[in-house]
């Protein structure tokens, strides 16, 4: 029994009495009053376990706090990416040479000379006789303004490779009359394209040839209803707002440069949390100025209203168009045009029968022949025919072009300085010395 008790209470009073013969009387009295009790052996491991648990919890809390702090920082700062594909002013090396057995014709739906005057430099640069892909450029006159007609005739007369013809009837009739030769590849161009990257037409041509099942191939269009949302989510959009009248910044009525770095930054004045999308352009020669590039500022600009839709705010808001144009100039100057890239490893984006603007597309004449194209040619070309024929409408995500305005945007965008800046860019980078452009009233 003594052994059992000693295992259960090894250092109690009874065990102390068993050792009295080893102690003197004084020690016995002390031992009896204050028995020497050791801590049970299991106490130390449990303390260690509790201490380890406390430290682990503290470390976990620290990691969680650090994670949320890092996440918040990531939301505020837009990363600057380097271009995986060279986007300079020379054609990229991996685009093959112009196909020798294919006739390529540019068709311009013409009506407004102030835009075509700028685009003329890009078209001449893309003519085959100048090392480009376009064997010919046909201007399809779709206006009754005699001044615009006379101006175009003068341009055609002095430019080899250009021709013009009056295009009567609906858009569908124009397509079948002027873009339906079987063995010809057509590049359809709206007359208000104010920027065409050197790679755009070559890439579109090769993408159409390399994807024979496709119905048509569009460029990656800046200022298209769907493009606002797409470019917003590829981090191509830069925070810009119109220059406030109350700012202590001299207002300029003359352009100095297309470069954003040569314009003042947005002044330190209060900014609303959301831009008023219904506000008109406050004055002529309106400049849009850049805010510090972060997500907080970006969400206060017009791009916050962008939606993936073919109509609505994307096609009607002049402010969305203005921010797109301003962002393009920033990305050109900063060499960050890769931010606009869309699609798979080949830069191909399939619209999956969803509507996209047809401002700048490549299509075979043989495809036009078998297509039902009516009054609403954009819907028929981008949605109805691809769906009925089982042939996808594609976007080449690296073929970058800029479209100045849709009808509802037109009046307000002309009150900005963007058309002047596109002209300045073309004069410096695209137009020949003997083909410098001046404003056309």
Summarize this entry quickly:
38% of the residues lie in helices and 14% in strands. It is an alpha/beta fold and 441 residues long. The longest helix is centred in the first third of the chain and has 34 residues, at 43-76.
Please write out the topology.
Elements: H1 2-8, H2 13-17, H3 25-33, H4 43-76, E1 103-110, H5 113-125, E2 136-141, H6 146-157, E3 162-166, H7 171-178, E4 184-190, E5 193-196, H8 200-210, E6 216-222, H9 225-233, E7 240-242, E8 288-290, H10 295-298, H11 313-316, H12 318-333, E9 348-350, E10 360-364, H13 365-369, H14 377-389, E11 393-403, H15 407-413, H16 418-429
Helix pairs in contact: 5-16, 12-15
Number of helices: 16
Kindly state the number of beta strands: 11
The unreliable regions are 1-28, 34-44, 69-94
Mean pLDDT: 83
Shape: globular
Cα Rg:
36 Å
Class by SSE composition: alpha/beta
In what range is the share of β-strand residues? 5-15%
| Element-by-element helix/strand order | HHHHEHEHEHEEHEHEEHHHEEHHEHH
Question: How would you characterize the largest beta sheet?
Answer: 9 strands, mixed
Distance between the termini: 118 Å
Helix content: 25-40%
């Amino acid at each position: 029994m003594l052994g059992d008790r000693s295992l259960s209470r090894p250092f109690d009073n009874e065990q102390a009495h068993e050792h009295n013969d080893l102690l003197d009387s004084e020690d016995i009295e002390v031992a009896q009053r204050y028995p020497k009790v050791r801590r049970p052996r299991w106490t130390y491991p449990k303390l260690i376990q509790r201490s380890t648990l406390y430290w682990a919890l503290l470390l976990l809390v620290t990691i969680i706090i650090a994670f949320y702090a890092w996440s918040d920082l990531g939301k505020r700062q837009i990363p600057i990416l380097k271009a995986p594909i060279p986007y300079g002013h020379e054609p990229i090396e991996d685009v093959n040479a112009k196909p020798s057995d294919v006739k390529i014709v540019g068709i311009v739906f013409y009506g407004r000379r102030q835009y075509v005057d700028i685009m003329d430099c890009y078209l001449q640069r893309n003519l085959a006789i100048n090392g480009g892909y376009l064997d010919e450029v046909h201007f399809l006159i779709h206006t009754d303004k005699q001044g615009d007609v006379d101006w175009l005739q003068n341009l055609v007369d002095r430019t080899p490779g250009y021709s013009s013809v009056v295009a009567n009837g609906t858009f569908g009739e124009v397509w079948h009359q002027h873009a339906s030769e079987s063995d010809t590849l057509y590049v359809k161009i709206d007359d208000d394209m104010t920027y065409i990257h050197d790679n755009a037409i070559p890439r579109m041509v090769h993408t159409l040839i390399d994807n024979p099942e496709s119905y048509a191939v569009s460029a990656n269009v800046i200022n298209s209803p769907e493009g606002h949302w797409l470019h917003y989510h590829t981090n191509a959009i830069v925070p810009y707002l119109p220059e406030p009248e109350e700012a202590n910044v001299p207002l300029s009525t003359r352009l100095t440069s297309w470069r954003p770095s040569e314009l003042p930054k947005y002044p330190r004045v209060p900014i609303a949390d959301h831009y008023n999308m219904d506000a008109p352009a406050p004055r002529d020669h309106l400049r849009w100025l850049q805010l510090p590039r972060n997500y907080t500022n970006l969400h206060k600009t017009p791009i916050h209203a962008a939606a993936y839709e073919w109509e609505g705010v994307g096609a009607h808001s002049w402010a969305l168009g203005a921010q797109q144009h301003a962002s393009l100039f920033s990305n050109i100057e900063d060499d960050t045009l890769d931010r606009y890239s869309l699609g798979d490893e080949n830069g191909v984006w399939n619209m999956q029968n969803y509507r996209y603007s047809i401002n700048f597309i490549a299509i075979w004449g043989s495809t036009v022949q078998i297509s039902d194209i009516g009054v609403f040619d954009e819907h028929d070309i981008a949605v109805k025919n691809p769906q009925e024929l089982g042939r996808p409408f594609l976007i080449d995500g690296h073929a970058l072009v800029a479209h100045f305005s849709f009808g509802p945007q037109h009046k307000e965008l002309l009150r900005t300085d963007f058309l002047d800046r596109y002209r300045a860019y073309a004069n410096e980078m695209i137009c020949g010395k003997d083909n410098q452009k001046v404003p056309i009233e």
